[in-house]
């Protein structure tokens, strides 16, 4: 058993910090081969009287610690005490593991994270924060989409703590796991290893193969979180990602239809009108989506025309539709918002007017109108003030000038950081495109065609120079696990 323990503790070597990426790969690959040869009982049976996990440091011996966690969580069964002990160890692992080592064992890492999510949600104080921390530890950008992104959201809704996923949701997805490109030397990728799509690939084990519905569900659930927080700008972005998702053969997903319905409603809530359709939408898909959401389009049309009574009737007639779609609460909020926007519209014509005239315009009693206006002012939905008067109808409603300072103007630093991040992601995407066989083929044809008929114009990439030397590279898989 002493030999087994020595094997477990043999990595990382003392000179790990001085190893080049290639040397690190070679050493860790040899270490992994040794671990595979160990019997499975090594991870579950006590060493002396100690759990093997007690002999390992999750921050230093992350790979064997992860292997032991995986085997022990598989074998724990219904032993409540043992499950709680393993959960505590898993939480410690989430906050301390070596992210470079874990890149080499994506399959077990994903399995342990999913087990941890299930155990956390089933606990007395449901939470998903430890797994959120682990995801950002592995990939600080959280920008390469995996099935764990979706699992995190699903469990957070089950536990009633969706806001705990914001550290992940607030990160923009810039890549999906792809197959390593053949015929490309490792050094052409090495400078981009700070981006997670260099090591989260289809072969690295971070969850099963992605399906389109996983991405659609992620963006739809994420939009739910932002709608609940009244962050309509971010919700709009998520819903439009869903609506614009590429569809083979112009097929329409039910998730896209659901996204479109919510997209209409929050546009009315946030701006008093429907947003213009994204310019890049697929006309055929959008036509199909709208044919399945006619009731919502009718509601939006009534709202934009400020036809309060007609919209109220539509809301009542379609009550079962809103209920079945899970949008009843949003539709009611839209109905309430119509009153607000009818009052706000008055500001385009008047600087001040008696409450009695507002009451006549809305069709309510003066005291009801005064109370409603006071509530709108208190909640910040109306920039105005009401003068004091003995009779509610004699009071004067005075509109205040609206501020011209936008939130985006205030948080310039955050906007700048986001643009810088997006620039990095675009550079990486352009670089990877240049490393594909298709790009090289285009370059070959363009070279044969001559400068007057340059086919490279069809793939105009602005960040890096083309890589014609790839044409003569020998076959060989890319080493994606360099640190």
TrEMBL record:
GO CC annotation: COP9 signalosome; cytoplasm
Entry-linked Pfam families: COP9_hel_rpt (PF22788), PCI (PF01399)
Residue span(s) of domain PCI: 323-389
Source superkingdom: Eukaryota
Biased composition (Acidic residues): 472-483
Keyword hit for Transferase: no
Keywords of the record: Cytoplasm, Nucleus, Signalosome
Any single GO BP term: ubiquitin-dependent protein catabolic process
Subcellular location: Cytoplasm; Nucleus
Region (Disordered): 464-483
Domain annotation COP9 signalosome complex subunit 3 N-terminal helical repeats: ranges: 50-281
Family in the record: Belongs to the CSN3 family.
Protein name: COP9 signalosome complex subunit 3
Source organism of the structure: Salinomyces thailandicus
